């Protein structure tokens, strides 16, 4: 009696070589898509260059922008020359090397804020969505309180309370992350709730799986895609926000170098010397654009609604 | 006839009411959906009990209660004498080994991010003492072989399989812990017609091989009849008739069973003009607000005053040798009648 | 078998000379997908006359619904494409017709109902408004008159208390009632053809019996041609006049319902009929068609059914069987239809 079915499955094996060649999982399907996506490739190249710039600025510039001795007041606001490709700023420092060295703050703020908000918001969202009832009520209400704070205002407030003196990149990261995690929590919570009601979760419960296993093995892998998409899209947003805060004078403080700070410093003398403003602004725009392109491509590849 | 074996599953007066709440902040209960409303039956080793009924009759809730995925409002589900509805923690986990399920939709019941090996092997990870760690992969491959899948496909993902093959994966997962009871909740209704028979045959073969007891829940009466030893017909949370397959199909005594059977289209066009049909009027009433007395009386052609006043018990009656919950139970062959 | 009489694509009704009400003729539909071109419909022909019920039987992926969507002109193009074929309504090809002219036919003279009535109805409008819309849009009727007609139609599809329910929303109705509302919308303008795509699959058996009974009555009243698309052999046996069995995007057998059930001429039809559980064979293994439905991206060579077929011989692997004429009223796309026919079904 069993022979019929076994024989027939042997048949299936022969009939399936076509499918075997197909990508194995949804992740590799997404990767397969991304590799063919021109927007993704362009975005990734730009982002890679940027990361390289942040990690090893000396590769791009022979001048160490943090060394005050490289600045020469007598050369202040000089236009583009063969020595100073992007001109010099108010203090006679080389704008090109400052732009290169300024990438680090942007990259740190973008990536760290995204990661922290995704981990905190994602983790709490997982708990809220899975346990529902009072855990959900509590976490969601807390998230809503933070959510209600307008982000720029909130960051301004946080930073002015935290104090300007020690306002390095990490304080900016913290202030932005504090305001960003509730969004991730909401996204994660919704994804978890829909994954939680899937039959395979019921099947795991019927097998006797505990909450930890169900969350980690069954729900998280099926709920994390929208979080990844949002976190990637957020990268650009955070970089722009850091520049904005530094421009307003509450973000990173001199002597640290940040594009936002540079733009802020240069804005008063813009008509005399446009270069110290234009170049950091251009780099900022390209960076934000690159991350947004990356986020868009990731969304197209992972968002099941578009698949 | 041999003496019936000891029941391995005893269900007594099982009730599940889902409260209907009103209000956002101050919730107050305004009623209850009586999904399962006093169900009792036994299941013996190696036996198949078919459960038929239409959507909303409570058959899926019943499955969840038996699996201890929902806690009943009252009543008991004893497996080998131990009540699963009151079991907690380690005891519940141990009891789960003995009762497993096969779900309806092979597309949603397998985690798309896990390989077949992980899915079928998960029971061993959860119950780590069942199979030694080193031997698990081999056990999984054996299981795949048993359900008629290629054991080399252990590293594939569910979407690489067809619906019928996925259902086999689900069955292999259910078999892993060597349970005595398997609850099959509409196991073939989501499959293509030509695949249904394959899966039915597999379920029957496994039953013989492992002496499994099935609760076979379905709305397709011909499928239920094929596989079941006994059949329970459910309507609005209650069993209205319970008997062996011949009793239910050849001499149904409850009007609802008769209507259900006669509504099933016969796959043979010969004589269709003369075939008699009992066409019920309207839809089943809401389980939140079932009719008084007999739940079926609002759609029944036999209903009298007594039906609104007195709820008929599920018992053998003068007109019915097997248990039937109708005051006017009377055998009527609706399938073979011309 | 050397020189079989080959009926390449036309159904018997066409050869009689007078054109049937609706004729699908050698229809091909392809979809452009990321994995490649899927040939969902591969030379399908069938016809239906006034008052006649044609059942199109097939599994998921057989192309039965795609064919219906092509008739209705509701395929998304792209990704769909119709490289070949005709859909003739009263002898005129709908596929080459101007869009405005086709719009005059769609919904008015050829109507369709779907499996999932809930998602086919708009949740934010009352059912009366949605039924009335047919009259307002197609006939320019006033709101008041359209509402009155909606109540009439709801009565006609036997929705109890139509007058009081005309202003209810779709979610306030049960599944069976929603399907009745769909039917009311479909028959609003007295179509000549009604296409029912799995109309009762989502419904319970007792409700299914009501809906099929209703469709049969409506058909008798108005002499509609009915195309019933389903996988349910029971429903087909109950209501169909003729059947067309589809497999892998082709029609593999067409016959009158009595001939087809009594003695199928294609191994697939025969397998389907034999795999139905039967009372006298209880306890025995069910007959099962082995293997799986074909993958449309990777169709078997020759006859699409050959990997699963007990009658297979060498040429089945290489030669695509044409639709052989079995008799005046039936055809089978099997090289060995005579053997299948001689074996009978039960």
Automatic annotation (TrEMBL), chain A:
Main location class: membrane
Compartments (UniProt record): Cell membrane
Region ranges (Disordered): 1-20
Transmembrane segments: 39-60, 105-130, 142-161, 167-188, 223-241, 277-298
GO cellular component, one term: plasma membrane
SUPFAM superfamilies xrefs: MetI-like
GO biological process: transmembrane transport
Keywords for the protein's UniProt record, in alphabetical order: Cell membrane, Membrane, Transmembrane, Transmembrane helix, Transport
Biased composition (Basic and acidic residues): 9-20
Membrane topology: Multi-pass membrane protein
Domain ABC transmembrane type-1: from-to ranges: 103-295
Family under the similarity heading: Belongs to the binding-protein-dependent transport system permease family.
Name of this chain's protein: ABC transporter permease
TrEMBL record, chain B:
PANTHER family with a match to the protein in the record: D,D-DIPEPTIDE TRANSPORT ATP-BINDING PROTEIN DDPF-RELATED (PTHR43776:SF7), TRANSPORT ATP-BINDING PROTEIN (PTHR43776)
GO biological process, one term: peptide transport
Annotated ABC transporter domain residues: 9-261
Record's keyword annotation contains ATP-binding: yes
Record has Nucleotide-binding as a keyword: yes
A Pfam family assignment: oligo_HPY
InterPro entries, A to Z: AAA+_ATPase (IPR003593), ABC_transp_ATP-bind (IPR050319), ABC_transporter-like_ATP-bd (IPR003439), ABC_transporter-like_CS (IPR017871), Oligopep_ABC_C (IPR013563), P-loop_NTPase (IPR027417)
Protein name stated in the entry: Dipeptide ABC transporter ATP-binding protein
SUPFAM superfamilies referenced in this protein's UniProt entry, alphabetically: P-loop containing nucleoside triphosphate hydrolases
UniProtKB/TrEMBL annotation, chain C:
Domain of life (superkingdom): Bacteria
GO molecular function, one term: ATP binding
Membrane topology reported for the UniProt record: Peripheral membrane protein
PROSITE patterns: ABC_TRANSPORTER_1, ABC_TRANSPORTER_2
UniProt xrefs under SUPFAM superfamilies: P-loop containing nucleoside triphosphate hydrolases (SSF52540)
Main location: membrane
Cellular localization per UniProt: Cell membrane
Family listed: Belongs to the ABC transporter superfamily.
Name this polypeptide is given: ABC transporter ATP-binding protein
């Amino acid at each position: 009696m069993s022979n019929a079915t076994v024989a027939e499955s042997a048949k299936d094996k022969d009939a399936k070589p076509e499918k075997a060649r197909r990508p194995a999982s949804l992740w590799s399907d997404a990767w397969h898509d991304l590799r063919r996506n021109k927007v993704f490739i362009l975005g990734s190249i730009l982002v890679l260059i940027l990361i390289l710039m942040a990690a090893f600025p000396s590769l791009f510039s022979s001048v160490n922008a943090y060394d005050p001795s490289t600045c020469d007041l007598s050369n202040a606001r000089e236009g583009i020359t063969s020595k100073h490709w992007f001109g010099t700023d108010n203090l006679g420092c080389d704008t090109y090397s400052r732009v290169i060295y300024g990438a680090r703050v942007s990259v740190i703020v973008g990536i760290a804020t995204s990661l922290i908000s995704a981990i905190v918001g994602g983790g709490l969202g997982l708990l809220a969505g899975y346990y529902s009832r009072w855990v959900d009520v509590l976490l969601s209400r807390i998230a809503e309180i933070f959510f209600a704070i307008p982000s720029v205002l909130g960051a301004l407030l946080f930073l002015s309370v935290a104090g300007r003196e020690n306002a390095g990149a990490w304080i900016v990261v913290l202030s932005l992350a504090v305001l960003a995690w509730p969004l991730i929590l909401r996204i994660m919570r919704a994804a978890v709730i829909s994954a939680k009601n899937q039959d395979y979760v019921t099947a795991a419960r019927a097998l006797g799986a505990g909450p930890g296993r169900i969350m980690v093995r069954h729900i998280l892998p099926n709920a994390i895609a929208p979080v990844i998409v949002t976190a990637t899209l957020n990268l650009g947003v955070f970089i722009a926000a850091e520049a904005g805060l530094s421009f307003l004078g509450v973000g990173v403080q001199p002597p640290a170098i940040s594009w936002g700070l540079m733009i802020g410093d240069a804005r008063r003398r813009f008509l005399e010397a446009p270069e110290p403003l234009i170049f950091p602004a251009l780099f900022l725009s390209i960076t934000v654009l690159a991350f947004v392109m990356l986020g868009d491509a990731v969304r197209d590849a992972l968002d099941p609604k578009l698949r | 006839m041999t003496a019936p074996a000891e029941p391995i599953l005893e269900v007594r007066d099982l009730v599940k009411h889902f409260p209907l709440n009103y209000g956002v902040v101050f919730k107050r209960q305004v009623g209850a959906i009586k999904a399962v409303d006093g169900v009792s039956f036994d299941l013996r080793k190696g036996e198949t009990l078919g459960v038929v009924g239409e959507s909303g009759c409570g058959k899926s809730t019943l499955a969840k209660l038996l699996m201890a995925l929902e806690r009943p409002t009252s009543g008991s589900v004893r497996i080998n004498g131990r009540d699963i509805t009151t079991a907690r923690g380690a005891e519940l986990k141990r009891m789960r080994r003995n009762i497993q399920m096969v779900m309806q939709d092979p597309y949603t019941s397998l985690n798309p991010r896990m390989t077949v090996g992980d899915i079928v092997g998960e029971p061993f990870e959860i119950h780590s003492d069942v199979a030694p760690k080193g031997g698990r992969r081999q056990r999984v491959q054996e299981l795949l072989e048993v359900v008629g899948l290629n054991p080399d496909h252990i590293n594939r993902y569910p979407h690489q399989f067809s619906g019928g093959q996925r259902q086999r994966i689900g069955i292999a997962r259910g078999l892993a812990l060597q349970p005595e009871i398997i609850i099959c909740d509409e196991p073939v209704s989501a499959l293509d017609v030509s695949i249904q028979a394959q899966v039915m045959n597999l379920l029957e073969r496994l039953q013989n091989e492992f002496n499994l007891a099935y609760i076979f829940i379905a709305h397709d009466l011909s499928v239920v009849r094929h596989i079941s030893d006994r059949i329970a017909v459910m309507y609005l949370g209650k069993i209205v008739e319970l008997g062996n397959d011949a009793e239910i199909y050849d001499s149904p005594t409850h009007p609802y069973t008769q209507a259900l059977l006669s509504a099933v289209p016969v796959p043979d066009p010969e004589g269709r003009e003369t075939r008699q049909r009992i066409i019920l009027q309207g839809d089943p009433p809401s389980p939140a607000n079932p009719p008084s007395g007999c739940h079926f009386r609002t759609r029944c052609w036999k209903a009298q005053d007594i039906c609104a006043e007195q709820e008929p018990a599920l018992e053998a009656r003068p007109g019915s040798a097997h248990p039937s919950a109708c005051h006017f139970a009377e055998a009527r062959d609706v399938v073979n009648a011309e | 078998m050397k020189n079989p009489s080959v009926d390449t694509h036309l159904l018997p009704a066409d050869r009689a000379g007078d054109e049937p009400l609706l004729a699908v003729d050698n229809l091909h539909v392809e979809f452009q997908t990321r994995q490649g071109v899927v040939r969902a419909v591969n030379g399908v022909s069938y016809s239906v006359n006034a008052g006649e019920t044609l059942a199109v039987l097939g599994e998921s992926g057989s192309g039965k619904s795609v064919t219906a969507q092509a008739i209705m002109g509701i395929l998304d193009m792209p990704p769909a494409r119709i490289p070949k074929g005709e859909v003739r309504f009263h002898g005129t090809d709908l596929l080459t017709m101007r869009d405005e002219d086709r719009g005059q036919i769609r919904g008015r003279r050829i109507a369709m109902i779907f499996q999932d009535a809930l998602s086919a109805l708009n949740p934010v409008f009352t059912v009366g408004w949605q039924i009335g819309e047919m009259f307002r849009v197609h006939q320019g009727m006033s709101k008041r008159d359209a509402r009155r007609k909606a109540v009439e139609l709801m009565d006609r599809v036997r929705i109890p208390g139509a007058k009081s329910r005309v202003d209810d929303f779709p979610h306030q109705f049960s599944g069976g009632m929603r399907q009745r509302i769909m039917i009311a919308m479909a028959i609003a303008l007295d179509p000549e053809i009604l296409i029912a795509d799995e109309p009762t699959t989502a419904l319970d058996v007792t409700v299914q019996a009501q809906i099929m009974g209703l469709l049969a009555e409506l058909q008798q009243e108005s002499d509609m041609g009915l195309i019933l698309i389903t996988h349910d052999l029971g429903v087909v046996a109950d209501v169909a006049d003729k059947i067309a069995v589809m497999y892998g995007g082709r029609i593999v057998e067409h016959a009158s319902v009595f001939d087809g059930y009594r003695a199928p001429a294609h191994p697939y039809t025969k397998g389907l009929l034999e795999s139905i559980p039967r009372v006298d064979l209880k306890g025995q293994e069910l007959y099962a068609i082995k293997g799986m439905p074909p993958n449309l991206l990777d169709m078997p060579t020759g006859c699409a059914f050959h990997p699963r077929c007990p009658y297979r011989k060498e040429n089945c692997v290489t030669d695509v069987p044409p639709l052989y004429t079995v008799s005046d009223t039936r055809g089978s796309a099997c090289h060995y239809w005579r053997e299948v026919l001689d074996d009978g079904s039960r």
